[in-house]
Amino acid sequence: MPGATTEIDDQLLGTSPADAGTDAVRRERLLVPRQRTVLGMPERTPAWQRSYVQQVIAVDAAVAALAAFVGFFARFNEAPADLATTAGRAVVAVAVLLPVMWVLAMGAFRTYEPRFLGVGSEEYHRVLTASLAVVAVVGTSSWAFDLDIARGYVVVAFPLAIVGTLIGRYTLRQRLHERRTRGEAGQTVVAVGHRAAVAGMARQLHRASYHGMRIVGACVPGGKGTPEEDAELDALGIEVVGSLDDVRHAVTSVDADVVAVTACPELDGPALRRLGWELEATRADLVVAPALTEVIGPRVAIRPVCGLPLLHVERPELEGVRRLAKTTVDRTAAAVALLLLSPLLLAVAVAIKLDSPGPVFFVQQRVGKDGRSFGMFKFRSMVTDAEKLLVDLRERTDGNGVLFKMKVDPRITRTGRLMRRYSVDELPQLINVLLGQMSLVGPRPPLQKEVDAYGYDMRRRLLVKPGLTGLWQINGRSDLDWDESVRLDVRYVENWSFTFDFMILWKTAGAVLRGRGAY
User: What is the band of 78 on the pLDDT scale with cuts at 50, 70, 90?
Assistant: First the structure.
């Protein structure tokens, strides 16, 4: 029965018989052919993205080939493999085929998909999973077919391939980030939602330029408004290109790569589903920003219940065995670091005494976990009467409105300027870590006057120990404004994990060497 079929189709498309007048138009927009894909990428993928994926594949293959050669040479440099035996032929076959197996495994675990490349830890996680899969397949095959592949080859080639692949991808990622800071190799975005949410997203994307996403247009309720209504978006260089019903047209008009939907009550489940169907005719990806922010990583998972994709949010790990393990690692690492760095610390102490009169250390009261105060140690980098001189300098601050900072502070000594450039003045805080008052990684240790100005959200920072380094250290330090500093600290508290800590420690070395925001 034609009428019944039409009614069923209308239900599937989220329409009602009352919308029949627009049914033909809706079907034309939704029932579109899917795009062809190459290497998991749409055919119209930007040239830079295709080139980047090709570079990643080439690096993976080259690393695997090098690992195979080194492993083979290390095992058989004294006595060549006996090709007359099954074991000898098997190890030669594995060495020759390793680059192919490696690339195929990486592809099978979707490590070449653009959405996983360039940012985040998911790429590295998939690389490790694919690598272990190759090791498991080779090991299982060796056991099942009694191949007896040389262990000396395996213990050299496979670890080398894994480490080399991770280093290669990290190097390519850093080069990509450098290009993106120059405005290259990015993705254009059409943001969908209310004006304030779009503006907030634009500011965050601008701060994290290495993600390569740039908002070039916005679709907001009602479309283009008055100059006063659109003033905030205009100041950010974002043009309103349509209403919530014009997203597909906006995507094609600005040739966008991504459609980013902010939390917007007008775009409910059926509306988002229809939008996804409409975008199938374009090369634009659809991403949705949930109303819940600053909660990322393993705490968040999609949990399907009765056909509903519910966002399951785990509790943050603020206590328990893992926190005890973190404290143990912190104190042990601090003790080892103080021992290894003792010659440097002694040399710095001598330089401070020779440069200006006064004590070597500067002890300042900071607020730690649960609001408890403690004396934080630093090498003295200023003259002894710095606090008195501050009265005359307050009007010349380059700080964030709460903290006083000057890029050229006359109170800083010559030795102090060099120490601050490379954060050497912070090293005595290892004593605080050893005493259990601080962690290696955590929120920035605040002053009491900062804590007095905290709102409810900001007090989340006090649920964990402050850190010697943290997200604030690797994202600009003194160049950050107050709101951004607080946001980063809250993000750390909400998403703490050992992996997160190791990532921050790794990036701290680069941030210190660059000296960005250090003054």
Answer: low
Q: How far apart are CA 406 and CA 426, in angstroms?
A: 18
Q: How confident is the model at residue 434, as a pLDDT? A: 96
Handedness of CA 374, 322, 488, 167 (dihedral sign): positive
Instruction: Tell me how far apart the alpha carbons of residues 162 and 448 are, in angstroms, rounded to a whole number.
Output: 47
* DSSP strand pairing (300-305 vs 187-192): unpaired
Alpha carbon 131 to its chain centroid, in Å, reads 22
Q: Is there a contact between 508 and 517 (Cβ–Cβ < 8 Å)?
A: no
Q: Which of 475, 467, 478 is nearest to 441 (CA)?
A: 467
Nearest to 222 by CA among 196, 199, 252, 242: 242
Categorise residue 135: left if φ over 0, alpha if ψ from -120 to 50, beta otherwise.
Answer: alpha
Cβ within 8 Å of residue 114, ≥6 positions away: 41, 45, 49, 52, 53
Please write down the HEC assignment for all residues of 390-443.
HCCCHHHCCCCCCCCCCCCCCCECHHHHHHHHCCHHHCCHHHHHHCCCCEEECC
According to DSSP, the β-strands at 37-38 and 41-42 are: antiparallel
At 142-159, the pLDDT tens digits run 777 676 666 777 888 899
State pLDDT tens for residues 368-390.
999 999 999 999 998 887 777 66
Lowest mean pLDDT among 4-13, 139-148, 282-291, 343-352: 4-13
120-137 pLDDT, tens digit per residue, is 888 999 999 999 999 998
